[in-house]
Task: structure prediction
Amino acid sequence: MNKTLDEIKMVHEEEMQNFDRIQSNVVGVMHRHGCKVIQTPVFEDYDTYGTYFPALQREMIKTIDTSGQVLVMRPDVTVPLAKMVAREFPDPSLLLKFGYVSTVFREYYGKSTHGKYFLQSGVEVLGDATAECDGEVITIAAEFLEALGIRDMRIDIGTVAYMDALFDEMHLPVDILARLRKYMEERNLVAFDEISKSLSISDRERRVLLELPKLFGGYGDTMRRAKNLCVNAKMKAALTRLSKVYEYLSEAGYVEKVQMDLGFTSHMGYYTDLVFKVYAPGALYSLISGGRYDDLASQFHVPRPACGFGMNMNLLYEFMADANLLEDAEPVCDLAVVYDAADARLIRLLSAWRKKGHSVMGISGRNKLNEKDYKMVISYEKGRFKEKGKIISVKTIEERLRDL
Result:
């Protein structure tokens, strides 16, 4: 039962308290960076997602509306956000900074839980094409975790523009490119090497391609290796831009946490340049991932650059539970009154205390109760209140309620 699917498991009060704390902290970070908190529609057109996420089509939760149109329940926030922004903010020069906490409907797998939907928080900045924007987005992601007590982290940065520039040079068929990206994402180096060695490309291009999955590690050494492998100006430009992001993170105080990985790719097919992931010791997965997607908005007829990230809060919760970073549950009720019989006086007092804003529960003595759920537990017997066998006055009860 410890591995119960999330979709058939209740979310309990204690979990909701911690989710509320997590959400409050990350929303606070959003506001400190000038983000407005928004929600995107729950339902989206199936064809829109079929275009951008063909690999996700089997995972999507589909339904049909009253007109017969096929819809999907939001498997991502970035696409509906770009679509919404194109409609509501048609001026592409306007800087927009949005934060969100939304349910996303697609499969995820953690260490001990998995499900078909999860709570996701994130930030999207639209209208800013600069490397400084990328640096701030990564900084916000790091501050998300710091606000939750997670300070030991590793930030891996890369750029798909470097890989794309290499692929442009080789003029490979679309199906071959798709396989290469798939093997890169899966870190299936055996399959990647096999297909790389079979391609009709120059020896130099093959050498660079075979080195691509190995371009990760400390920033300085990896950057030097990557520069030596450049075969065109676009690859050099991608590294120059990434170096500016690194400089931003250095000034923001995260230089010791940054590593470089140029083998990044993603089944989210809209990334065009920067990609990054944030890890923490003990997690079997990245806690945060994101990147730059400058071409997505043009699909909705208002071209504008954009950069953002998402954080799976269900996986984050699992990690925080394993790392003992969750707070102990607080009692959900101020007072429990256990009675043998509820007379008129008791009913009037319970009602009066509730109207004063206190949470009060009357419980028949025939039922059991979990005392950890209550800040005070007293009994009511024959018109008198008692605590641990001693009589306690109504005045004392009300004074203690006011002090809670």
